[in-house]
Amino acid sequence: MQWEVVIGLEIHTQLTTQSKIFSGSATTFGSEPNTQASLVDLGMPGTLPVLNKEAVQMAVKFGLAIDAEIGQHNVFARKNYFYPDLPKGYQISQMELPIVGKGHLDITLEDGTIKRIGVTRAHLEEDAGKSLHEDYSGMTGIDLNRAGTPLLEIVSEPDMRSAKEAVAYVKAMHALVRYLGICDGNMAEGSLRCDCNVSIRPKGQVEFGTRCEIKNVNSFRFIEKAINSEIQRQIDLIEDGGKVIQQTRLYDPNTNETRAMRSKEEANDYRYFPDPDLLPVIIEDSFLEQTRATLPELPPQKRERFQSQFGLSLYDASVLASSREQAEYFEQVVGIVGDAKLAANWVMVELGSLLNKTNSDMTKPPISAEQLGGMLLRIVDKTISGKIAKEILEAMLAGECVEIGIGSADEIIEQRGLKQVTDSGAIESILDDMLAANAEQVEQYRAADEAKRGKMFGFFVGQAMKASRGKANPGQVNELLKRKLEG
Amino acid sequence: MHQMTLAEIARGLADKKFSSEELTRTLLARIAQLDPQVNSFISVTEDLAITQAQAADARRAAGENGALLGAPLAHKDLFCTKGIRTSCASKMLDNFKAPYDATVVAKLAAAGTVTLGKTNMDEFAMGSANESSHYGAVKNPWNLEHVPGGSSGGSAAAVAARLLPAATGTDTGGSIRQPAALTNLTGLKPTYGRVSRWGMIAYASSLDQAGPMARTAEDCALLLQGMAGFDINDSTSIDEPVPDYSASLNDSLQGLRIGVPKEYFSAGLDPRIADLVMASVEELKKLGAVVNEVSLPNLQHAIPAYYVIAPAEASSNLSRFDGVRFGYRCEDPKDLTDLYKRSRGEGFGPEVQRRIMVGAYALSAGYYDAYYLQAQKIRRLIKNDFMNAFKDVDVILGPTTPNPAWKIGAKNADPISAYLEDFYTITANLAGLPGLSMPAGFADGLPVGVQLLAPYFEEGRLLNVAHQYQLVTDWHTRSPAGF
């Protein structure tokens, strides 16, 4: 049987407001337990919530960025359930009238095509605290620092058809909220968490299969692995004659399996109702326009501009535009070197592999845009070859010449004597020595027919470059060598 | 000294006839002597009172002269008071010392009032008889075998017994006006949003409103002045200027249009009360008022709507009392579920548990539309009824309660019969309107109250009408025997 996978995602993004959504407490991560919990966050009797306008503005910003309708009449509702890290016994959320309505987000698939993923809604809510089970034997510690942190819960349509698409969507969403400056996107600290709804159906069937929800997956890699393991579990189950039951599951990265948390029957009745402590929030057109004016250039527009302004391919443009830091870095490099294709290539390929190697990302690039741009300039003016450039990149990474300046390419070239040899006389003498040392090969070359000469020619180029320690200008080497061998 | 009203105290203090400390000591002694009979206090804050009184005297000596400076009062025990037990008359919060002051408490303290203590009430303000308190029933000073009304029954009984001149109360379905009526006091529930709810432990958030309880409208004006105002900590408080309530007390009633809804005179109204209501109308006519007929066609739906909305909100508001962070925790919980079940089962009394269950049921999936949404629709209809009525009249007048105070325990077997006592008061909460109850006579020695309702933010008009009425009547001056 051919199976089709259907995936919908709920992404919880912590908004980077100065203070919590309903109290004045700070939202800084990693403080001593319960030091950022006010009377309101503790759920003290008699306390009341006051909505943080900044959170509303961030949600509106997000809504505008995904082309969604913004709810003009916003109602906060109470979601009632008991849990020790939920101090009031209810979470203030939005139910019927969310702030962000239907919208969409485009993702770029691996084959370079663009797919539009629907966003059903996004609503504001408060985060709960944390239960700490590890540090206390037989007891649970409660840390309410996180309680009341604003969350924007973004619910997608079931539009994704593979784990890879799901990851592409989360990455695009991750990039978007960072572009907008509304979430720091730090998945390890839980600033962006994902619930994955997964079901399968026979290919061609219209009705959805029964779905399972994998709760709280917090890395791109785990999202892909969790979904794939869940897909396999469902396929195995059905092909063995079983049935998928709707339930909430947890992904265990150690076993690469999902396991059941609770089934639909055990699900809470949350008894939602409008929170009487908060008045409906009316969003006026003027507020919308004010907020729209603060929107930065977003990935799709940036991608289009990169294509038209710099003549980049769709794929290169969308990769570069996919994160705000990378796009800004790229534009800085282009600003220095002028050659956009060269810049794109070095940012995507060489810098990309440096990032992998150093296990860092574009928020803390190991080499600055000034350094990279300055070096590319030397490729353009033929001071160095591409090969030497890679050597210089390594040197920059090692922090070379930082003590005498900024660790610029020019400083390293000077220090290491890497300046490309373009003096024909000097190159000729290198070639002469090399050819003399390989007299036998020269004989063979001259005896060989045109078809074989190509490969042999490469051998001489390699020897010449080696002899010049890579500094000889490859173009000149080619030209002069050809002349000498023919002669 | 204990017979003085707030206004008389203010004059006495201003004229240096006595100090706030002298007055406070006199009243504290009186509370110690007489309160065992009425059980109106949960906590008497003697040390705080003396400190505050001395501070008020010092401020006055330094030239200050506020109307509330040095005035003794007490707070219903659901207003958070920093460092002082704030129990809501519940075993659940018997050990709870609030870490902060409610806005009402802070504002009144800043005005120089002296807090004599925290008054008894129905547990979590749920009740009309003050019988559901963890600290025992409160008795009506007019007849100690009768209830004082509720839920602000402790505040009412304390003022009626002349233990102090005034107290704060809260009113969710009549909890200021009904006990005021049953103990011969003047009590005012302001417009929803007029007084901050910050620090007032919630029963039903969309209905709760704090207000003054005193013997006269003049005193209610003084106390409301110290309580009212916008509060940034309460999103439902309203940013409207607070008028000078005392300044309008003496406005003429010439041409005042009074509406008496015909639906008020239905079965269930004690005919003696009906007579006293009509007598009060005659009294106001003599002062120049005219009577127009008005109708509140949806009145009969008010009680069912209220007893869905209030418990629904309460079921959620009281979820925070779970034995985890504060309040009562059961002994040796087996696990988390056991901790929740027993802490709540043992910490809450039967009426609170009943309302939590009713409310949770009304909000549950499958019933929400039929109960909660329906009740909200009725609420809108009732509000519309009032909007229509206030096109033709300036105030609506009627009985505060269908019956005078009943005997303690008389309605215990049948909660519904107690719920029906809220028939006249509940609508003001559902519509968010201000309402006042004032003494209007007696039925077999038990006080009877008349209720006045006005459009939003017309507290001044209510106090004006009541004050003019009190200038020509003496019901409000009568004291219960033995007090």
Q: Any key phrases for this structure?
A:
heterodimer; A: 487 residues; alpha+beta; Arc Repressor Mutant, subunit A; eight-stranded mixed β-sheet; three-stranded antiparallel β-sheet; 15 strands; elongated; B: 483 residues; alpha/beta; Amidase signature (AS) enzymes; three-stranded mixed β-sheet; globular
What's the short story on this structure?
The complex is a heterodimer of chains A (487) and B (483). Chain A has 487 residues and is an alpha+beta fold.
Task: Write a structural description.
The complex is a heterodimer of chains A (487) and B (483). Chain A is built from 15 helices and 15 strands. Chain A is of the alpha+beta class. In chain A, the strands form four sheets. In chain A, strands 5-6-9-1-10-11-12-13 form an eight-stranded mixed β-sheet. Chain A has a three-stranded antiparallel β-sheet with strand order 4-3-14, with no helix packed on it. In chain A, strand 12 and strand 13 form a beta hairpin. In chain A, helix 7 (324-337) crosses helix 8 (340-358), helix 7 (324-337) packs parallel to helix 9 and helix 14 (450-467) packs across helix 15. Chain A is elongated and about 95 Å long. Chain B has a domain at 6-256 and 398-411 and 433-477: Amidase signature (AS) enzymes. Chain B has 15 helices and eleven strands. Chain B has an eight-stranded mixed β-sheet with strand order 4-6-5-10-11-9-7-8, with helices on both faces. Chain B is globular. The mean pLDDT of chain B is 97. Classes of the chains: A alpha+beta (487), B alpha/beta (483). Chains A and B meet through loops of A and helix 9 of B.
